[in-house]
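Need residues for this backbone.
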């Protein structure tokens, strides 16, 4: 049975050729780590903090920029709700496909559940229809057996803003159709042609130039 993550679906929509290199041929291309270092630190720190670990020594090692982002997260209203789990792998089945990913955190208050995703960089241009939103909401709804009182929250640490998407049965239908459509497109793809609009900043552009 085929399994897909949000990044796999995003990559295919961005460029089928990039998907082919990354997930079919499994070619790994080194990337500069600098843009991702802050995000990795904040995610790791948040996980330890939510689990109740002593993080005082780690906080002292943060740069001023990292400390600013961490303070915003610690003071965020959703981050301070009742903890359920963090850095949690979750998946569900739709038709003949398995979809899933790794949640930053799952929290609740009263009967309401919140999926949290911390962003030190950019929030998706269309959060409601982002593959991460779709997959996480469907997976958590099926896992918890709930049809309402579930919200996906992007915590934008750069702008200190929250973006909320509330789960509903109507959205479930829209998400299921969109996800199954994309999964079928991947399975039926034969040529994996490159999308030349996205070549400039693609880590595989030199490989593409060599081959083509």
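Answer:
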């Amino acid at each position: 049975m085929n399994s897909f993550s949000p990044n796999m679906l995003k990559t295919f929509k961005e460029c089928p050729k990039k998907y082919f290199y990354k997930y079919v041929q499994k070619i790994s291309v080194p990337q500069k780590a600098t843009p991702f270092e802050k995000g990795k630190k904040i995610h790791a720190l948040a996980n330890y903090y939510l689990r109740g670990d002593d993080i005082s020594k780690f906080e002292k090692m943060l740069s001023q920029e990292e400390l600013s982002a961490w303070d915003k997260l610690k003071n965020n209203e959703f981050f301070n709700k009742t903890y359920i789990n963090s850095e949690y792998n979750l998946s569900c089945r739709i038709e003949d496909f398995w979809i899933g990913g790794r949640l930053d955190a799952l929290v609740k208050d009263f009967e309401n559940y919140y999926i949290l995703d911390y962003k030190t960089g950019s929030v998706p241009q269309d959060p409601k229809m982002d593959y991460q939103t779709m997959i996480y909401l469907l997976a958590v709804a099926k896992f918890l057996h709930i049809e309402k009182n579930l919200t996906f929250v992007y915590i934008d640490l750069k702008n200190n803003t929250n973006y909320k998407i509330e789960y509903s049965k109507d959205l479930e239908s829209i998400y299921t159709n969109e996800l199954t459509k994309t999964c079928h497109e991947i399975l039926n793809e034969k040529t994996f042609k490159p999308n030349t609009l996205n070549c400039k900043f693609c880590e595989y552009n030199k490989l593409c130039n060599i081959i083509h």
